[in-house]
Amino acid sequence: MSKLSVIRPVFWDQGAAGAGNDRPHFDFRRIWKRAVVLMLCVALMPLLALAWFDYRVTQQYSENEIALQVDRLVSNAKRTVAFFLEERQAALEFIVNEYSFAELDDDRRLAGILDNLGASIGGFTDLGLFTADGRQIRYIGPYALKDQDYRDEAWFREVVSAGSHISDVYLGFRGEPHIVIAVKREKKDGSFFVLRATLNTAWFNEQLAHIKERGVGDSFLVNHDGVIQTPTLAHGEVLDPLPLAIPPYAEDTRVYTTTDGAGREIVMGYAYIPGAPFVLLTIGDKGELLRPWLGTRLVVVVFLVVASLLIILVVLGVATNLVNDIYRADLERAMALREAAKASKLASLGRLAAGVAHEINNPLAIINEKAGLLSDLLGAGENGGANREKLLGLVASIHRAVERCAGITRRLLGFARPGDIKVEMVELSEVIREVMEFHGKEAEHRDIRVNLELDSELPAFPSDRNKLQQIFLNLVGNAFAAMNDGGHLYITGSLPDENYLLITVTDDGCGIAEEDLKKVFEPFFSTKTRIGGTGLGLFVTYGLVRELRGQIRVESSQGVGTRFFITLPLQGLEGEEENKGNEHAHSVG
Amino acid sequence: MEEKILLIDDEAEFVETLAARMRARKMTVTTATSAVEALGRDDVDAYDAIVLDLQMPGMDGLAALEEIKKRNPKLQVILLTGKATVEKGVKAMKMGAMDLLEKPADIEELTEKIKEAGGRKMVLVKEASENEIKEIIGSKSW
């Protein structure tokens, strides 16, 4: 037996394996499959749909959340950077408007201004005053840049044409990355001068480092040409070109998703800093940012898998149980039908036999009377002459044959004779003891062991003692006929449930051939014809058991033995007599 | 004493053979092959015993029994049947039959029953006539 057969439902192999009349009416495997598929669809579809919907909504929500966060950070940083630059530019504008060229053309004054700026808003490295021809005539700061000629520098040309300038980060003469802010002031004589301040980039780096600490990703400035202006985490060194395309100009902050050079999905937030050549970029790894959401996703998936498994188990269990029940009911129905067909067949056979017996009885009576008349005539006078004795002998043998026929017809009529039941309380053990007394001599003579196993709880029950005796006489008689000397006969009585008594009569005799088993209860079916069987014993026994509202069935295996099962009701036979009597009155009237 | 009996059975051969055997046993036998024929006779009351088959075409044994008993309750009826059942037996006895025998019956047993029937009838008739005499005596006002 394979391990699978333990969980395989009983109906599984029936659809295909069953044959003939015993075949079930339904394809149980198909019913089962259909039930499983249908129930799984109904149960799993909404679950899957909901899970998928939830998955999508959560994902969308997370992405939006990330975009919003990036947007907020970038916008804040943009305002801070822009304000920082504007504030410094405004300070320089104020200085050139407040002071005349003559006043500024003074190292001590300029140094004082730088000190004041440092104390108030900070961020300035140095301060320089330029004449219209691009020469730095005053310089306050850590580098020796005084009298340098800036006439051809790009920033100088721009400040000349635009009035003010905020530069990219560049190395310049000093070889350090820095930003310059320069403002131009027209003098009354038509010429102009320029005040320039250098801002170190440390302040930007510090501001942007805050964003990086927030865990959103890499934040840095690039100029409009895509050159990195402040340190990055993973996108290159300062003044290197950014390996990504610079997004097109937009007035406000934008966030979008794209892929980087390595093909990873990234969330990019950017903002153009107004009035300065910078673009603030925040680049986050999308996978990294979605990590909290992945946790939620895992929970959803685990829930889905567990719920689905549970549903599948329940559906399989329910469907299997259901179909098993249907299968059992169908099996019981089929068996009941078979039993009913058998009973009805035997009943019609009984009626037929009784009809035949009745018809035979009339001519039998004529034969009887004719033979009787013959013997009367022979007996009365000297008729018959020399052959008288011989004739009387022949008449006597006719009488014996008639007697034998009469015996058979009486037994046949006995089968179809309903209702002549005498109900009394009967102890099974007593009945069997009486029967065994009858067979005791034969058992002893033939050395047959009789084992009686009666449940000690067996109650007395209403039944017909004579009929019961006849039943067991027949069965035990058959068993004796089937057994060799020294055989074993087992008789058991038990209570399988509170309504029925189960009696088995088992012998270890020759057994019954399988093809004969179906016919053993039919009249005139006998395997003992050679030794004088009439084939009516089991037929009559069957009729008797049915009369007692019981059932009889046989199992046999050739060469091993035969077992008869008799179930008898413990209740319901009281008052049988009147009922039958009434039925009969109807049929006569 | 010579019993006077009426045999009713639809099998003519059976009824004639049985009659012959009864006559051999010193009985006066009349035969009929149907209940209707038998009940048509005007001397029905005169028989000591009526032997009646149960299964017959037309009027069956039980119906004939009922009719006979209605006509004269003193008449003794023995039923002879090829299909005896306890119910029918009990029913027949309740309806006043004297006995019920199964076919094929033993002639001696049947003879015995007929003799018994003759005795019974005699007693009944005697009682009846005595009652009649008593009544007559009682009604006279001397």
Could you name the key traits of this structure?
heterodimer; A: 589 residues; Heat Shock Protein 90; five-stranded mixed sheet; rod-shaped; disordered C terminus; B: 142 residues; alpha/beta; Rossmann fold; globular
Give a description of the structure.
The complex is a heterodimer of chains A (589) and B (142). Chain A is of the alpha+beta class and 589 residues long. Chain A has a domain at 419-588: Histidine kinase-like ATPase, C-terminal domain (Heat Shock Protein 90, 2-Layer Sandwich), CATH 3.30.565.10. Chain A has 15 helices and 16 strands. Chain A has a five-stranded antiparallel β-sheet, sandwiched between helices. In chain A, a hairpin with a 3-residue loop joins strand 15 and strand 16 (561-569). Chain A is rod-shaped, with a radius of gyration of 59 Å. Mean pLDDT of chain A is 83; it is low at 16-21 and 577-589. Chain B has 142 residues and is α/β, with parallel strands linked by helices. Chain B has five helices and five strands; from the N terminus they run E-H-E-H-E-H-E-H-E-H. Chain B has helices at residues 12-24, 35-40, 61-71, 86-94, 107-139; strands at 4-8, 28-32, 49-53, 77-81, 99-102. The model of chain B has no long low-confidence stretch (mean pLDDT 87). In chain B, helix 1 (12-24) links the parallel strand 1 (4-8) and strand 2. The longest helix of chain B is centred in the C-terminal third of the chain and has 33 residues, at 107-139. Chain B starts with a strand and ends with a helix. Chain B has a five-stranded parallel β-sheet, sandwiched between helices. Chain B has a single domain (4-139), classed as Response regulator (Rossmann fold, 3-Layer(aba) Sandwich). The chains are: A alpha+beta (589), B alpha/beta (142). The A-B interface holds A 354, 357-358, 361-362, 364-370, 372-373, 376-377, 380, 402, 406, 410, 413, 417, 419-420, 580-581, 584-585, 588 and B 11, 13-14, 17-18, 20-21, 24, 55, 62, 82-88, 91, 102-105, 107.
